[in-house]
Protein backbone atom coordinates (compact mmCIF):
# COMPACT_ATOMS: atom_id res chain seq x y z
CA UNK A 1 0.00 0.00 0.00
CA UNK A 2 1.39 3.30 -1.03
CA UNK A 3 1.71 5.88 1.70
CA UNK A 4 1.79 9.64 1.16
CA UNK A 5 5.17 11.28 0.86
CA UNK A 6 6.41 13.25 3.83
CA UNK A 7 4.77 16.64 3.93
CA UNK A 8 6.70 19.79 4.72
CA UNK A 9 4.61 22.09 6.90
CA UNK A 10 6.90 25.07 6.30
CA UNK A 11 5.57 27.59 3.78
CA UNK A 12 7.98 28.58 0.96
CA UNK A 13 9.12 32.20 0.77
CA UNK A 14 6.55 34.38 -0.93
CA UNK A 15 8.68 37.47 -1.59
CA UNK A 16 9.03 38.44 -5.24
CA UNK A 17 12.55 39.75 -4.76
CA UNK A 18 15.90 38.03 -4.97
CA UNK A 19 18.67 38.40 -2.42
CA UNK A 20 20.74 41.58 -2.64
CA UNK A 21 24.05 41.10 -4.36
CA UNK A 22 27.24 42.27 -2.61
CA UNK A 23 27.55 45.20 -5.01
CA UNK A 24 23.92 46.28 -4.95
CA UNK A 25 22.21 48.35 -2.30
CA UNK A 26 18.65 47.47 -3.28
CA UNK A 27 16.92 44.25 -4.12
CA UNK A 28 16.31 43.40 -7.75
CA UNK A 29 13.37 41.91 -9.62
CA UNK A 30 13.67 38.19 -10.21
CA UNK A 31 12.24 38.61 -13.73
CA UNK A 32 13.93 41.67 -15.25
CA UNK A 33 16.74 42.36 -12.76
CA UNK A 34 15.67 45.99 -12.36
CA UNK A 35 15.55 47.81 -9.05
CA UNK A 36 12.48 47.36 -6.88
CA UNK A 37 10.91 49.82 -4.44
CA UNK A 38 11.16 47.41 -1.50
CA UNK A 39 13.68 47.95 1.26
CA UNK A 40 16.59 45.51 1.37
CA UNK A 41 16.45 42.86 4.10
CA UNK A 42 17.90 43.94 7.46
CA UNK A 43 21.50 43.01 8.15
CA UNK A 44 20.77 42.47 11.85
CA UNK A 45 17.97 40.72 13.66
CA UNK A 46 15.02 43.04 14.33
CA UNK A 47 14.57 41.43 17.75
CA UNK A 48 16.07 43.21 20.71
CA UNK A 49 17.64 41.43 23.65
CA UNK A 50 14.76 42.66 25.77
CA UNK A 51 12.13 41.21 23.42
CA UNK A 52 13.53 38.06 21.83
CA UNK A 53 11.52 36.02 19.30
CA UNK A 54 8.83 33.90 20.90
CA UNK A 55 9.58 30.25 21.52
CA UNK A 56 7.23 27.94 19.69
CA UNK A 57 5.98 25.09 21.83
CA UNK A 58 3.89 22.51 19.98
CA UNK A 59 0.95 21.00 21.83
CA UNK A 60 2.42 17.55 21.22
CA UNK A 61 5.99 16.51 20.58
CA UNK A 62 6.62 15.44 16.97
CA UNK A 63 6.81 11.73 16.30
CA UNK A 64 10.35 10.33 16.29
CA UNK A 65 10.87 7.88 13.45
CA UNK A 66 12.81 4.66 13.78
CA UNK A 67 15.02 4.01 11.98
CA UNK A 68 16.01 7.64 11.21
CA UNK A 69 14.26 9.18 8.21
CA UNK A 70 11.66 6.44 8.09
CA UNK A 71 9.41 7.11 5.09
CA UNK A 72 6.61 5.50 3.17
CA UNK A 73 9.04 3.43 1.11
CA UNK A 74 10.51 1.85 4.24
CA UNK A 75 7.02 0.88 5.42
CA UNK A 76 6.18 -0.57 1.99
CA UNK A 77 9.33 -2.72 1.96
CA UNK A 78 8.88 -3.95 5.54
CA UNK A 79 7.62 -7.50 6.04
CA UNK A 80 3.99 -7.96 7.02
CA UNK A 81 3.72 -8.86 10.74
CA UNK A 82 2.70 -12.48 11.36
CA UNK A 83 0.22 -13.90 13.82
CA UNK A 84 1.61 -15.74 16.83
CA UNK A 85 0.21 -17.85 19.61
CA UNK A 86 0.28 -16.13 22.98
CA UNK A 87 2.53 -18.00 25.39
CA UNK A 88 0.62 -18.70 28.63
CA UNK A 89 2.30 -17.98 31.95
CA UNK A 90 3.31 -20.77 34.29
CA UNK A 91 1.64 -20.93 37.67
CA UNK A 92 2.36 -19.96 40.34
CA UNK A 93 3.40 -16.63 38.85
CA UNK A 94 4.79 -13.53 40.54
CA UNK A 95 3.05 -10.43 39.23
CA UNK A 96 4.64 -7.00 39.52
CA UNK A 97 3.60 -3.39 39.21
CA UNK A 98 4.49 -2.34 35.62
CA UNK A 99 6.63 0.70 34.91
CA UNK A 100 7.77 2.89 32.02
CA UNK A 101 11.04 1.90 30.39
CA UNK A 102 11.14 3.66 27.00
CA UNK A 103 12.84 7.06 26.93
CA UNK A 104 14.78 7.23 23.65
CA UNK A 105 15.01 5.84 20.11
CA UNK A 106 17.59 3.34 21.40
CA UNK A 107 15.02 2.03 23.85
CA UNK A 108 12.53 1.69 21.00
CA UNK A 109 15.06 -0.36 19.04
CA UNK A 110 15.53 -2.65 22.02
CA UNK A 111 11.78 -3.04 22.45
CA UNK A 112 10.68 -3.50 18.85
CA UNK A 113 13.22 -6.29 18.27
CA UNK A 114 12.36 -8.13 21.49
CA UNK A 115 10.24 -11.25 21.64
CA UNK A 116 7.76 -9.40 23.85
CA UNK A 117 7.03 -6.83 21.13
CA UNK A 118 6.91 -9.49 18.43
CA UNK A 119 4.47 -11.62 20.40
CA UNK A 120 2.29 -8.64 21.30
CA UNK A 121 2.08 -7.55 17.66
CA UNK A 122 1.47 -11.18 16.70
CA UNK A 123 -1.50 -11.18 19.08
CA UNK A 124 -2.97 -8.14 17.30
CA UNK A 125 -2.49 -9.90 13.95
CA UNK A 126 -4.28 -12.95 15.38
CA UNK A 127 -7.21 -10.75 16.43
CA UNK A 128 -7.28 -9.31 12.90
CA UNK A 129 -7.31 -12.78 11.36
CA UNK A 130 -10.07 -13.97 13.70
CA UNK A 131 -12.51 -11.43 12.25
CA UNK A 132 -11.45 -11.92 8.64
CA UNK A 133 -14.44 -11.95 6.25
CA UNK A 134 -16.87 -11.83 9.22
CA UNK A 135 -19.63 -9.34 9.86
CA UNK A 136 -20.07 -8.13 13.42
CA UNK A 137 -23.42 -9.92 13.58
CA UNK A 138 -21.96 -13.31 12.56
CA UNK A 139 -22.20 -16.06 15.17
CA UNK A 140 -19.21 -16.57 17.44
CA UNK A 141 -18.13 -18.32 20.59
CA UNK A 142 -18.73 -16.13 23.62
CA UNK A 143 -17.55 -17.34 27.01
CA UNK A 144 -18.87 -16.25 30.37
CA UNK A 145 -15.70 -14.20 30.87
CA UNK A 146 -16.28 -12.36 27.59
CA UNK A 147 -19.79 -11.50 28.67
CA UNK A 148 -18.44 -10.09 31.94
CA UNK A 149 -15.92 -7.92 30.08
CA UNK A 150 -18.64 -6.58 27.78
CA UNK A 151 -20.82 -5.83 30.80
CA UNK A 152 -17.88 -4.02 32.41
CA UNK A 153 -17.48 -1.73 29.39
CA UNK A 154 -21.22 -1.10 29.24
CA UNK A 155 -20.96 0.09 32.84
CA UNK A 156 -18.33 2.62 31.79
CA UNK A 157 -20.60 3.80 28.97
CA UNK A 158 -23.39 4.29 31.49
CA UNK A 159 -21.15 6.54 33.58
CA UNK A 160 -21.04 9.05 30.71
CA UNK A 161 -24.81 9.43 31.15
CA UNK A 162 -24.43 9.94 34.89
CA UNK A 163 -21.61 12.51 34.56
CA UNK A 164 -22.75 15.25 32.15
CA UNK A 165 -20.21 17.66 30.62
CA UNK A 166 -19.55 20.89 32.47
CA UNK A 167 -20.58 24.21 30.96
CA UNK A 168 -17.34 25.83 29.77
CA UNK A 169 -16.09 27.99 26.93
CA UNK A 170 -13.07 26.00 25.75
CA UNK A 171 -13.51 23.72 22.75
CA UNK A 172 -11.39 20.82 23.97
CA UNK A 173 -11.00 19.15 27.32
CA UNK A 174 -14.23 19.23 29.30
CA UNK A 175 -13.26 19.03 32.96
CA UNK A 176 -16.09 16.61 33.75
CA UNK A 177 -13.97 13.94 32.04
CA UNK A 178 -11.71 14.06 35.09
CA UNK A 179 -14.68 13.12 37.26
CA UNK A 180 -15.40 10.18 34.94
CA UNK A 181 -11.76 9.08 34.95
CA UNK A 182 -11.46 9.43 38.73
CA UNK A 183 -14.43 7.12 39.13
CA UNK A 184 -12.70 4.68 36.79
CA UNK A 185 -9.52 4.69 38.87
CA UNK A 186 -11.41 4.38 42.16
CA UNK A 187 -13.39 1.37 40.92
CA UNK A 188 -10.72 -0.27 38.75
CA UNK A 189 -9.76 -2.99 41.23
CA UNK A 190 -13.36 -4.01 41.93
CA UNK A 191 -14.03 -4.06 38.18
CA UNK A 192 -11.06 -6.38 37.63
CA UNK A 193 -12.24 -8.72 40.38
CA UNK A 194 -15.42 -9.29 38.37
CA UNK A 195 -13.47 -11.12 35.67
CA UNK A 196 -10.50 -12.61 37.52
CA UNK A 197 -10.62 -16.16 38.88
CA UNK A 198 -9.56 -16.66 42.49
CA UNK A 199 -6.06 -17.95 41.68
CA UNK A 200 -5.27 -14.88 39.53
CA UNK A 201 -6.54 -12.09 41.76
CA UNK A 202 -2.96 -11.13 42.63
CA UNK A 203 -2.58 -9.98 38.99
CA UNK A 204 -4.54 -6.83 39.83
CA UNK A 205 -1.30 -5.03 40.67
CA UNK A 206 -0.14 -5.56 37.08
CA UNK A 207 -3.21 -5.37 34.87
CA UNK A 208 -5.02 -2.41 36.47
CA UNK A 209 -2.49 0.18 35.16
CA UNK A 210 -2.99 -1.06 31.57
CA UNK A 211 -6.76 -0.87 32.05
CA UNK A 212 -6.89 2.63 33.52
CA UNK A 213 -4.49 3.94 30.83
CA UNK A 214 -6.77 2.63 28.08
CA UNK A 215 -9.30 5.45 28.25
CA UNK A 216 -7.25 8.62 27.96
CA UNK A 217 -5.25 10.93 30.22
CA UNK A 218 -7.14 12.84 32.91
CA UNK A 219 -4.50 15.58 33.28
CA UNK A 220 -4.31 16.49 29.59
CA UNK A 221 -7.89 15.36 28.90
CA UNK A 222 -6.77 13.69 25.70
CA UNK A 223 -6.80 10.31 24.00
CA UNK A 224 -4.84 8.69 21.20
CA UNK A 225 -3.38 5.53 19.70
CA UNK A 226 -1.14 5.02 22.73
CA UNK A 227 -4.18 4.63 24.98
CA UNK A 228 -5.79 2.34 22.41
CA UNK A 229 -2.60 0.24 22.46
CA UNK A 230 -2.89 -0.01 26.24
CA UNK A 231 -6.33 -1.58 25.82
CA UNK A 232 -4.86 -4.11 23.38
CA UNK A 233 -2.09 -4.73 25.95
CA UNK A 234 -4.71 -5.34 28.66
CA UNK A 235 -6.39 -7.93 26.43
CA UNK A 236 -2.98 -9.46 25.72
CA UNK A 237 -2.33 -9.80 29.46
CA UNK A 238 -5.68 -11.56 29.87
CA UNK A 239 -4.67 -13.92 27.06
CA UNK A 240 -1.31 -14.67 28.67
CA UNK A 241 -3.11 -15.56 31.91
CA UNK A 242 -5.51 -17.83 30.02
CA UNK A 243 -8.58 -15.76 30.95
CA UNK A 244 -9.33 -15.41 27.23
CA UNK A 245 -8.33 -18.06 24.70
CA UNK A 246 -7.97 -18.24 20.93
CA UNK A 247 -11.53 -19.49 20.59
CA UNK A 248 -12.61 -16.16 22.13
CA UNK A 249 -10.72 -13.95 19.68
CA UNK A 250 -13.56 -13.31 17.25
CA UNK A 251 -15.85 -12.23 20.12
CA UNK A 252 -12.95 -10.27 21.61
CA UNK A 253 -13.02 -8.11 18.47
CA UNK A 254 -16.70 -8.12 17.49
CA UNK A 255 -18.04 -7.67 21.02
CA UNK A 256 -15.37 -6.39 23.42
CA UNK A 257 -13.34 -4.16 21.12
CA UNK A 258 -16.40 -2.82 19.32
CA UNK A 259 -17.92 -1.83 22.67
CA UNK A 260 -14.62 -0.24 23.67
CA UNK A 261 -14.65 1.88 20.50
CA UNK A 262 -18.26 2.83 21.18
CA UNK A 263 -17.22 3.98 24.66
CA UNK A 264 -14.27 5.97 23.37
CA UNK A 265 -16.34 7.75 20.72
CA UNK A 266 -18.83 8.56 23.44
CA UNK A 267 -16.07 10.04 25.60
CA UNK A 268 -14.66 11.98 22.64
CA UNK A 269 -18.06 13.44 21.85
CA UNK A 270 -19.30 14.13 25.38
CA UNK A 271 -16.08 15.47 26.92
CA UNK A 272 -14.33 16.78 23.79
CA UNK A 273 -11.13 14.85 24.37
CA UNK A 274 -8.18 16.39 22.59
CA UNK A 275 -6.33 14.12 20.13
CA UNK A 276 -3.09 12.97 21.77
CA UNK A 277 -0.15 13.36 19.41
CA UNK A 278 -2.28 13.87 16.30
CA UNK A 279 -0.47 13.89 12.96
CA UNK A 280 -2.99 16.38 11.65
CA UNK A 281 -4.50 15.70 8.25
CA UNK A 282 -1.71 13.23 7.42
CA UNK A 283 -2.63 10.91 10.27
CA UNK A 284 -4.83 7.90 9.67
CA UNK A 285 -7.31 9.12 12.30
CA UNK A 286 -7.14 11.61 15.17
CA UNK A 287 -7.77 8.95 17.80
CA UNK A 288 -7.76 5.37 16.49
CA UNK A 289 -5.80 2.88 14.42
CA UNK A 290 -6.87 -0.66 15.35
CA UNK A 291 -10.50 -0.38 14.14
CA UNK A 292 -9.17 0.16 10.62
CA UNK A 293 -6.92 -2.92 10.89
CA UNK A 294 -9.73 -5.13 12.17
CA UNK A 295 -12.27 -3.49 9.88
CA UNK A 296 -10.20 -4.00 6.73
CA UNK A 297 -9.80 -7.67 7.69
CA UNK A 298 -13.58 -8.00 7.91
CA UNK A 299 -13.90 -6.84 4.30
CA UNK A 300 -11.25 -9.13 2.78
CA UNK A 301 -12.71 -11.06 -0.19
CA UNK A 302 -16.04 -9.22 0.01
CA UNK A 303 -17.89 -9.76 -3.26
CA UNK A 304 -19.08 -6.20 -3.73
CA UNK A 305 -17.40 -3.74 -1.38
CA UNK A 306 -13.95 -2.54 -2.38
CA UNK A 307 -11.69 0.06 -0.69
CA UNK A 308 -13.15 2.73 -2.99
CA UNK A 309 -16.62 1.90 -1.63
CA UNK A 310 -16.01 4.23 1.31
CA UNK A 311 -17.05 7.05 -1.04
CA UNK A 312 -20.47 5.49 -1.60
CA UNK A 313 -22.87 7.04 0.91
CA UNK A 314 -25.46 4.28 0.47
CA UNK A 315 -22.89 1.66 1.45
CA UNK A 316 -21.81 3.67 4.48
CA UNK A 317 -25.38 4.14 5.66
CA UNK A 318 -26.42 0.50 5.19
CA UNK A 319 -23.30 -1.40 6.24
CA UNK A 320 -21.39 0.70 8.80
CA UNK A 321 -23.10 -1.18 11.65
CA UNK A 322 -21.55 -4.42 10.37
CA UNK A 323 -18.04 -3.32 9.40
CA UNK A 324 -15.68 -1.37 11.65
CA UNK A 325 -13.78 0.23 8.79
CA UNK A 326 -16.96 1.77 7.40
CA UNK A 327 -18.05 2.81 10.90
CA UNK A 328 -14.75 4.65 11.32
CA UNK A 329 -15.29 6.52 8.07
CA UNK A 330 -18.82 7.47 9.09
CA UNK A 331 -17.64 8.83 12.43
CA UNK A 332 -14.88 10.89 10.79
CA UNK A 333 -17.36 12.39 8.34
CA UNK A 334 -19.66 13.18 11.24
CA UNK A 335 -17.09 15.12 13.27
CA UNK A 336 -15.12 16.73 10.44
CA UNK A 337 -16.38 19.23 7.91
CA UNK A 338 -15.35 19.75 4.33
CA UNK A 339 -14.14 17.42 1.60
CA UNK A 340 -13.02 13.99 2.77
CA UNK A 341 -9.91 14.14 0.59
CA UNK A 342 -8.87 17.37 2.35
CA UNK A 343 -9.40 16.45 6.02
CA UNK A 344 -8.48 12.74 5.65
CA UNK A 345 -6.06 12.49 2.70
CA UNK A 346 -4.38 9.29 3.95
CA UNK A 347 -7.66 7.38 4.17
CA UNK A 348 -8.59 8.86 0.81
CA UNK A 349 -5.34 7.57 -0.67
CA UNK A 350 -5.91 4.12 0.85
CA UNK A 351 -9.29 3.96 -0.91
CA UNK A 352 -7.36 3.67 -4.16
CA UNK A 353 -5.70 0.40 -3.12
CA UNK A 354 -7.16 -2.44 -5.22
CA UNK A 355 -7.92 -5.03 -2.50
CA UNK A 356 -8.78 -5.13 1.20
CA UNK A 357 -6.03 -7.71 1.71
CA UNK A 358 -3.46 -5.13 0.63
CA UNK A 359 -5.10 -2.50 2.83
CA UNK A 360 -4.95 -4.81 5.84
CA UNK A 361 -1.32 -5.83 5.37
CA UNK A 362 -0.31 -2.21 4.76
CA UNK A 363 -2.08 -1.02 7.91
CA UNK A 364 -0.39 -3.71 10.00
CA UNK A 365 3.01 -2.49 8.78
CA UNK A 366 1.96 1.10 9.44
CA UNK A 367 0.84 0.24 12.98
CA UNK A 368 4.26 -1.17 13.75
CA UNK A 369 6.05 1.86 12.26
CA UNK A 370 3.70 4.67 13.25
CA UNK A 371 2.66 3.50 16.73
CA UNK A 372 4.96 0.85 18.21
CA UNK A 373 8.11 2.56 16.90
CA UNK A 374 7.26 6.08 18.04
CA UNK A 375 8.92 7.36 21.21
CA UNK A 376 6.23 9.99 22.04
CA UNK A 377 3.63 7.21 22.05
CA UNK A 378 5.55 4.31 23.56
CA UNK A 379 7.31 6.35 26.25
CA UNK A 380 4.08 5.92 28.26
CA UNK A 381 3.87 2.16 27.69
CA UNK A 382 4.27 -0.10 30.72
CA UNK A 383 6.36 -3.21 31.27
CA UNK A 384 6.03 -5.86 33.96
CA UNK A 385 6.07 -9.65 34.12
CA UNK A 386 3.38 -10.16 31.45
CA UNK A 387 4.86 -7.74 28.91
CA UNK A 388 8.53 -7.88 29.72
CA UNK A 389 11.15 -5.24 29.06
CA UNK A 390 13.77 -6.86 26.86
CA UNK A 391 11.44 -9.85 27.16
CA UNK A 392 12.49 -13.06 25.50
CA UNK A 393 9.71 -15.60 25.27
CA UNK A 394 9.67 -19.01 23.71
CA UNK A 395 7.40 -18.24 20.77
CA UNK A 396 5.11 -20.54 18.84
CA UNK A 397 4.46 -19.58 15.23
CA UNK A 398 1.25 -20.47 13.46
Automatic annotation (TrEMBL):
UniProt xrefs under InterPro entries: Phstyr_phstse_ac, PTPA_C_lid, PTPA_sf
Catalytic activity: [protein]-peptidylproline (omega=180) = [protein]-peptidylproline (omega=0)
UniProt entry tagged with the keyword Cytoplasm: yes
GO cellular component: cytoplasm; nucleus; protein phosphatase type 2A complex
Pfam families xref list: PTPA
Low complexity bias locations: 13-37
GO terms for MF: peptidyl-prolyl cis-trans isomerase activity; protein tyrosine phosphatase activator activity
GO biological process: mitotic spindle organization
Entry EC number(s): 5.2.1.8
Entry keywords, A to Z: Cytoplasm, Isomerase, Rotamase
Main location: cytoplasm
Ranges where the record places region Disordered: 1-67
Intracellular or extracellular location(s): Cytoplasm
Recorded family membership: Belongs to the PTPA-type PPIase family.
Function: PPIases accelerate the folding of proteins. It catalyzes the cis-trans isomerization of proline imidic peptide bonds in oligopeptides.
The protein's name: Serine/threonine-protein phosphatase 2A activator
Naturally occurring in which organism (per UniProt): Salix purpurea (Purple osier willow)
Species lineage: Eukaryota, Viridiplantae, Streptophyta, Embryophyta, Tracheophyta
Amino acid sequence: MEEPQEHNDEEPPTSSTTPVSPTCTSPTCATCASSTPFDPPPTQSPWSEISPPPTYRPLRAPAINLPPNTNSQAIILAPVPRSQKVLPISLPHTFQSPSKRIHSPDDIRQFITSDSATNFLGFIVSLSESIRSHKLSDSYHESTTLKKIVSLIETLIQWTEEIPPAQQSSRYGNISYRTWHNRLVENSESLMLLILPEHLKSSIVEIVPYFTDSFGNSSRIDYGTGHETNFAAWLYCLARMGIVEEVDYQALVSRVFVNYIELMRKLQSVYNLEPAGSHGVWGLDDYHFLPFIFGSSQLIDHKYMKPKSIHNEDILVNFSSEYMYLSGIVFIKKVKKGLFAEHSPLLDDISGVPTWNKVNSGLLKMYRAEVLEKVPIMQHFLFGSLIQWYGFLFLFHD
